[in-house]
Amino acid sequence: MCSSDLLRTSSGQYRWVLTQGRAVQRDQDGRAILVSGIHKDIHDRRLAEDALRDLNQSLERRVADRTAALAESERFSRATLDALATHVVILDQAGKILFANRAWSEFAREHSLWGAAPYEGVLYRPAGAARHEFGDLAEQIDVGIAAVIAGTRDEFQLDYPFRQGAGESWFRCRVGRFPGAGPLRVVVQHANITDERAVQAELRRSNDVFRAIAESQAAYLERGDWKGAITRLLRYALHETESVLGFFGVMVAGQLRVLAHEGIVWHDVKGRAFFEQASELYRKQGFLEFGNLKTLFGHCVTTGEVVLSNAPDRDPRAGGLAEGHMHLHSFLGVPVAKSGKVMGMIALANCPSGYSQKHIDCVNAVLQTVALLLESYLHELSEAALQEQRARAEREVRQALATLDATDDGAFIFEPETLRFTYVN
Questions:
Q1: Of 273, 292, 363, 409, which one is least surrounded by beta carbons within 10 A?
Q2: What gap in Å lies between CA 51 and CA 323, rounded to an integer?
Q3: Read out DSSP for 63-101?
Q4: Highest mean pLDDT among 6-15, 32-41, 114-123, 342-351
């Protein structure tokens, strides 16, 4: 037999005592007739065992709580990453996928980038046709990830386009290490920056517009360089619409007067004499005039409508080209008007991708400034015409007075109301 009991000592304290005994002699019925045993003080051992048991239970509870906390933390982290629109992948030191969030997994599955799911344990490299499609881009990302894993780079970043159906999206790939101690972990992020790039492009376009307008106004207002002002706006329109050639024209006495042009190339032989004659005339008088308005640009100034044609050869509004003129595969004409009256136009041609509404919007951005310049030009023409009329009248008066002075007869001019003589020969 063996038992542990809490016994009271003579001092009144209670201590744990181990009692052990056994029968050393039994009668014929098996009853013990002689028993030997001991009592052993195990109080300190029992207290140590109780303390150890309590400690073990406490540790087990803490381990269970910690495990539950880690599981909750992992669940929360995964849920957080899955909630992101950014494509996120976590790699180990070998470049294999440890975790891929929902956005990345769905994108990879939709575009067949990494074969079939699950992706955990797969090397982070596009497979099959996707590998061929990405080409150099895939190689650049591979090199960037390898450099971050090797520690030769702290971070890798690359912006790249990705075609989706008929459209194109832009992504930014970022690769970085997990901070702190522990096994090497690398985070790869692919964020869609299409909207960001669109905003940046729009801001860039706005800055370009403001700069072009400011430089044009400075040329005209500060230096009186009218042609420099209009040419600056023409070059802006050519650049923003990716056009090869173009001109700005103003309507004068029913004819389209070309005040500035860029990019016109002529054949070395065909129609060369006509081109050189026109070029010489432009250098001398500063403009060229077109009376034939049965053309694409003529339709623009006579109707006040935007003319957009990505097949000028087959456009019924076209009137053909002069011999030797470079081929036109696209044309855009935007009228310049004020108070409903067409003053002139902006003509652009040969945008590689053809023209669309976005190109019209680019031209419209400077249309008001162009209108002011054309209006100023027409005003200067009117002023010059009035001055010429005044000078002609003065010459005629001088000639008449000289004729009167040469006669032998007396002649005089007076004001009827005041009877004041204004001339006497």
A1: 409
A2: 108
A3: HHHHHHHHHHHHHHHHHHHHH-SSEEEEE-TTSBEEEE-
A4: 342-351
